[in-house]
Design brief:
Blueprint: H1 3-23, H2 34-37, E1 54-55, H3 60-65, E2 72-76, E3 88-92, H4 107-111, E4 115-119, E5 122-128, H5 146-159, H6 163-178, E6 182-186
Antiparallel strand pairs: 1-3, 2-3, 4-5, 5-6
Helix pairs in contact: 1-5
The protein binds iron/sulfur cluster (SF4) (2 copies).
The site of one iron/sulfur cluster has 13 residues, from helix 2.
């Protein structure tokens, strides 16, 4: 690829991530949901004391997080099961000693408890049965702000313009279908 194309791709991908971060910047319910659960999905350790972090999307470190994330591990395909076309994931720990760097929080924090899903070519956002955090708001969906649902949905549509992210979504969607791991599913146009 020529330098010119490299430069173009860099600008485009960064613009896509920026737009997705912007779209996915809506609170799930009115007020601060962390007050309902003691900020359960932001906890630093699990019940056994094991340090908890979160995975960035492919290219999210390179295009959005490299200047803010200081504490991370690189998980390589040599040690971890991952989709065949992906060679590494960044696994990050919340990067401010005092708490959340809210404007820079990654996609995983913005989309939770939704995950992106593609089945028979159709896109939806879903809530999995099996999940680490067990958000207390899952039983209170009628209270979710439509702006949050729309923002997550539209943010993923934006991110899917990046081929490796679409591939990542398709890979985990197949796994989810095979393990029957969908609790709730949201289609925008139905
Ligand atoms: S677990 Fe749910 S309610 Fe609690 S902070 Fe996370 S998203 Fe908010
Ligand atoms: S970046 Fe912020 S929202 Fe995300 S897990 Fe850390 S403290 Fe919670």
């Amino acid at each position: 690829m020529s330098d010119k194309n490299n430069k173009l791709m860099r600008t485009d991908y960064q613009a896509i991530f920026k737009e997705a971060y912007h779209l996915m910047d809506e609170a799930i319910i009115a007020g601060n949901c962390g007050e309902c659960c003691g900020y359960h999905c932001c906890r630093r350790n699990d019940a056994d004391g094991k340090r908890l972090g979160m995975y960035l999307l492919p290219l999210e470190y390179e295009y959005m997080q490299s200047e803010v994330v200081a504490d991370y591990e690189l998980h390589s395909h040599l040690q971890y099961d991952m989709p065949p076309k992906i060679k590494k994931y960044y696994y990050i720990y919340c990067h401010l000693a005092e708490g959340c760097l809210r404007d820079h929080r990654p996609i995983q924090c913005r989309t939770y408890p939704f995950e992106p899903h593609i089945e028979n070519g159709e896109f939806s956002i879903v809530i999995e049965k099996e999940q680490i955090h067990g958000c207390v708001l899952i039983e209170r969906m009628p209270e979710w702000r439509q702006a949050f649902i729309d923002g997550v949905y539209n943010g993923w549509l934006e991110l899917m313009k990046i081929p490796v992210i679409k591939y990542n979504i398709e890979y985990f969607s197949k796994e989810r279908i095979a393990t029957n791991n969908i609790m709730k599913q949201y289609f925008k146009w139905r």
